[in-house]
Write a structure and sequence with these properties.
Strand 4 and strand 5 form a beta hairpin. The chain is of the alpha+beta class.
Length: 152
């Protein structure tokens, strides 16, 4: 019986290593393959919760909004080491589906989105109440009534 319990405990430990919940500590690029040479598929905003698996050489496989790719682990923090209050207040929640667009630099950026609070990584609030993640001022909130206020 003792050996069976030990084997079950070891199996749980192995499963926990395969997938870990983390929070991003800065805006993070989702890449097509591990390493800096992988094409940037989209940018994940700071404060986003991710479930990482298959981490090798500091790069981890992840699925974000149905798109699979790789992120570097160095800009994430394990949720298990955070205080419960910090986890509860880590991020505003979108009140509509999150979409993305490709900016003038060819980078994938989150489209303006309505949130229940100011989201981490937002650069402006549009006049229609949505939050923009634009990386350039020109054209920011152009389809959302213009910029109400800049956040950075």
């Amino acid at each position: 019986m003792r050996k069976l319990l030990l084997a079950a405990w070891m199996l749980i430990q192995v499963l926990d290593l395969n997938a870990q919940q983390v929070i991003t500590t800065s805006n993070l690029n989702l890449r097509s393959r591990p390493g800096e040479t992988g094409t940037v598929l989209l940018q994940i905003p700071k404060g986003t919760t991710l479930e990482l698996d298959d981490c090798r050489s500091g790069w981890c496989h992840v699925s974000v909004n149905g798109q699979e790719g790789y992120v570097t682990k160095k800009f994430t923090r394990n949720l298990s080491v955070l205080e419960p209050d910090h986890i509860a207040n880590r991020q505003a929640h979108p009140t509509e589906p999150v979409r993305y667009y490709q900016n003038s630099d060819g980078r994938t950026v989150q489209s303006p989105t309505h949130y229940d609070a100011v989201p981490t990584g937002a650069t402006a609030q549009c006049r229609d109440g949505s939050y923009s993640f634009s990386q350039h001022r020109r054209g920011t909130c152009s389809h959302h009534g213009g910029v109400k206020r800049w956040l950075n």
